[in-house]
Amino acid sequence: MNYMPGTASLIEDIDKKHLVLLRDGRTLIGFLRSIDQFANLVLHQTVERIHVGKKYGDIPRGIFVVRGENVVLLGEIDLEKESDTPLQQVSIEEILEEQRVEQQTKLENEKIKVQALKDRGLSIPRADTLDEY
Amino acid sequence: MLGKLRGRKNGIFTKSHNEDITLIGKSLEDCPLDEDEDAFQGLGEEDEEIDQFNDDTFGSGAVDDDWQEAHERLAELEEKLPAAVNEQTGNGERDEMDLLGDHEENLAESLSKMVIENELEDPAIMRAVQTRPVLQPQPGGLNSSIWDGSEVLRRIRGPLLAQEMPTVSVLEYALPQRPPQGPEDDRDLSERALPRRSTSPIIGSPPVRAVPIGTPPKQMAVPSYNQQILCPKPVHVRPPMPPRYPAPYGERMSPNQLCNVPLQPGRMSPSQFARVPGFVGSPLAAMNPKLLQGRVGQMLPPAPSFRAFFSAPPPATPPPPQQHPPGPGPLVQNLRSQAPMFRADTTHLHPQHRRLLHQRQQQNRNQHRNLNGAGDRGSHRNSHQDHLRKDPYANLMLQREKDWVSKIQMMQLQSTDPYLDDFYYQNYFEKLEKLSAAEEIQGDGPKKERTKLITPQVAKLEHAYKPVQFEGSLGKLTVSSVNNPRKMIDAVVTSRSEDDETREKQVRDKRRKTLVIIEKTYSLLLDVEDYERRYLLSLEEDRPALMDERKHKICSMYDNLRGKLPGQERPSDDHFVQIMCIRKGKRMVARILPFLSTEQAADILMTTARNLPFLIKKDAQDEVLPCLLSPFSHLLYHLPSVTVTSLLQQLMNLPQSAAAPAPSNPHLTTVLQNKFGLSLLLLVLSRGEDLQSSDPAAESMENNQWMQVMFMATRELLRIPQAALAKPVSIPTNLVSLFSRYVDRQKLNLLETKLQLVQGIR
After folding, report:
1. Across-strand partners of A51?
2. Which terminus, N or C, of chain B has the lesser number of Cβ atoms within 10 Å?
3. Considering the entire predicted model, what is its pTM?
4. What is the mean pLDDT of residues B556-563?
5. Which chain B residue lies closest to A36 (C-alpha atoms)?
6. CATH number reported for the structural domain that contains residue A65 in this entry
7. Confidence class of residue B453 from pLDDT cuts 50, 70 and 90?
């Protein structure tokens, strides 16, 4: 059944595996079970996938109900091609560790930059301290 | 608008962000049956905002009932259920009555009664149902639809109203067993048989459901149909559990439910299925509610867990899908088959939309018949169905829920003027259609049926807003709303005098004024461009008026461009030049030119040529002038030779008489160094040559003029140093022949090299 051709309706995506990117940066992978008019999603057998470099780790999360406004984008995952990836899956602990390390280096770089700017008398407000809206 | 929520107990009305009435709490207690009966009778007739029969507020519910206790009792009861249930076989009639109203009974009984649901199509139940008085047909009969007024929909249980889409799931959980309608038989009994639960279940505990999760909605009458459309019953989603897939009904349906579904010929009970493990895999395909649509007279094996359980009416009397149902018979059709039967009022829909909708339903029906004709293991057409088959959690979202969402989405697409609201979408699809039409004409390829989304078209309604007025009161209410905003601030616009401002301010103001003029002219332009389409859509008698409007707008545009000074010539180019300094202004002029008359357009061209160096300077950053080349070149083809001559003069800033001394010509240099300038120059020259060559018998006056100008032109061209010339957009081919008339061989070569007129040199 061709629901609403030419539009971005999610009805035809139901019961398919999707990758959902959230506004807070999380990546969720799960089966889309239910939607509503706000594109709130119900994801089943959800897995949160953390990517660091070429590695990734999956944290099983169960059922997610995602409020529509927090979704940046989502797309269907081709089950056949899913395993065809150059990325390497690692354990949860390892990926979390990698993520922590990555965050740390990022923070340190940021600090250095801010310091350098400060030395020159400039200050750039950090995006995360700005109000979202 | 409020729905009729009669006989609700502990109904808590809150407003969702959709401004709907959402019922989010209910208890198991209900009023005595007779009270409800009365309520039901008078249902559709009143138009009160307050549900006076709401027991929670006005009745016993407020006084003696305690929903919390009831819930606790119920929770306990659930554990004791297996014992209690066995009494309930064939108790359908009682069931319904109880479901409807007799909530004073002890919970065990009522719970067990809830278990045996009418959706299970117990013939005893159905017969019982038949004894109930038939619900009067609604006004408009089967023609209710999502767009119907509240009058019709009020009959529907729950806050389902035409304009208000209820937020989904909570409703169903909260709705009590007793719907506000009178006779029930042709109502969707599944809607009634919702669990009387006031709080969400504890995670991990079995759902408090009167209706087993797998039970299909029973669709009998339109209202219920609408209800389903508008308020889909969500299946209770259990907390994540490891998918114990091969246990068909184990934890999903209480054992009592399994045991007590009465068996019918041709109908397999769930319990049977539980004993036939082999069936587990196959039913899924058939169970896909999408595929079940239109299935009539067929039995579908219920699938394990979360499966909509569609049962068939007695094989003897499946009514043909197209007919009006003969009344509240033991008729179970699923939602989709109902649609054509009831011919839900699609008159408001676009005819193509209607057709499409019905087509789809037909297709689905056929599909299902095909699939189900082969039994459980129907032919599986694609891997998606395969996947669905293997996916035990598929179709958690029921078909009608999907329909509901898609209906909301379609409603959102309602528009009185799609070209205004959804311009790019409309244009894109028009283009696609033209393309495919063109392709079809060219090649006799297979016609690709590209399904097109037909959006609902809503007629424009003119509402004159009248502010609220009370009779007999003195004066008017000072009520301010969205439609009737009140003036908050008395802001008075004072125009500032010229002296007060600084130079900068003046400049800024002038620029702003120019910007405003550009915006206004652009709106006019967009309107004018749209006239063609409107012309095609309009009626015969409207057309002259349209044409007049269009002409008028074109005139205004031109006036805007040139700066209308009443009663004067247009002495100053300033206005136009200001517009041309702004990028948007240039693009706009390029778009306007095709609409102007030749004289007006020629005027614009001349002005441009006159001020070209200035414009070139201003365009250094934008580099948008070349966009004017195309309309200018079109224009040139219509210009007479006189104009071309004077144009050339302007462009090259040639002195008026040949005898005048030749000062340095920075004007020309600038022009030549600019892409646009050079291209324009070449175009003008080419045009002149065309005119010359095509019409040798032209009037000598013009000829002379042209010759003179050309002589001067060639002189100038020879004179200027070989500065870095711009690269013109295109080099007209006849320039060599042009120059050859006026200069000798040597100079011709010189000119050629200088202007790089010969292709080979480049």
Report:
1. A56
2. C
3. 0.47
4. 84
5. B405
6. 2.30.30.100
7. low
